[in-house]
Amino acid sequence: MKAAICYYSATGNTRLAAQFVAKRLSLDAELFDVRDAAPDLSKYDLVAFASPTDWLEEPQQMRAFMGALPRLEGKPSLVIVTHGGMPGRTPANLAKAATSKGLKIIGCVVVRAPDNYPPIVAAGRPKDLLVPTDEELADLGKQLGELKARMEAAASGKEVGPAIVKPSLIFSMLPHISRSRSKKQQGPKSVDEKLCTKCGKCARSCPYSAIALNPLPTFDEAKCWGCWACFNLCPAKAIYTRKLRGKGQYPGPTGRYKEKYGA
Ligand SMILES: Cc1cc2nc3c(=O)[nH]c(=O)nc-3n(C[C@H](O)[C@H](O)[C@H](O)COP(=O)(O)O)c2cc1C
Ligand code: SF4
Ligand code: SF4
């Protein structure tokens, strides 16, 4: 089955999960970063959307990409979500956005990943080093097994209804967390001039074009959404905040997560 997987991934967890899911489902998949121009999705048998969780919901980039899609009437679609323990409304929001474009949701895969939110990384969550646990691996295997069976049934001509993706009652009741609150938690960013190599990676990685190089990076805090991508991806660990300096960085998948899903 020829599949397009449209993904957003700040630090690589979601990209890795999407590749893993594609392999396990034997999809002939092409991956598209939602920050690039959208491909012609009508050419694919299946369109998947892969997203991390950002304050219990999908990141703005994912929302904007899906909102701008043309109608793709009746095309099978799959939702893949990574999260650090609380996927919240992300799976249901993505399923709703896809359905609103005429896509038919055939499944939803939710993957527990190490948390890349620096205050949590700095606090040290020993469990994240063990992600995925044996139970989480077994759960993912079960999700993929059921999904594969549905896909095979559909391929053999059986009528397979759309998958229902709803948030649990507790997640649906949690309040929306505003950007100003998440930005307040981060506070203004600074650059350690002694560490910065002026490589420009932070400016290239910022999804909101909030960083200019002069030649050291300067931050337009009005444009910044507090996503932490620059902090996480700086190769020199030169970016710091009032609360976090030289600690809390999540540069990308390592350890057990990479070992289990990267192979
Ligand atoms: C700003 C921010 C907010 C986050 N909010 C949540 C959240 O509400 N629930 C959760 O389980 N994980 C949350 N995370 C963790 C990420 O969803 C998780 O680590 C994800 O796998 C990162 O994917 P990526 O490497 O593809 O960007 C958050 C991370 C960041 C940086
Ligand atoms: S990514 Fe880090 S080292 Fe590179 S320019 Fe930005 S702050 Fe400097
Ligand atoms: S400047 Fe703000 S929006 Fe841009 S990458 Fe850094 S934290 Fe994210």
Question: Brief description of this entry?
Answer:
The protein is an alpha/beta fold and 263 residues long. The chain contains 11 helices and 9 strands. A 5-stranded parallel β-sheet has the order 2-1-3-4-5, sandwiched between helices. Strands 6-9 form a two-stranded antiparallel sheet. It has a two-stranded antiparallel ribbon with strand order 7-8.
Topology:
Elements: E1 2-7, H1 13-24, E2 28-33, E3 46-51, H2 60-67, E4 76-83, H3 90-99, E5 104-112, H4 118-123, H5 126-129, H6 134-155, H7 169-173, H8 179-186, E6 189-191, H9 201-205, E7 211-213, E8 217-219, H10 229-233, E9 239-241, H11 255-261
Parallel strand pairs: 1-2, 1-3, 3-4, 4-5
Antiparallel strand pairs: 6-9, 7-8
Descriptive report:
The chain has 263 residues and is α/β, with parallel strands linked by helices. The protein has helices at 13-24, 60-67, 90-99, 118-123, 126-129, 134-155, 169-173, 179-186, 201-205, 229-233, 255-261; strands at residues 2-7, 28-33, 46-51, 76-83, 104-112, 189-191, 211-213, 217-219, 239-241. It has a 5-stranded parallel β-sheet with strand order 2-1-3-4-5, sandwiched between helices. The chain starts with a strand and ends with a helix. The relative contact order is 0.15. The model has no long low-confidence stretch (mean pLDDT 93). The protein binds flavin mononucleotide and iron/sulfur cluster (2 copies).
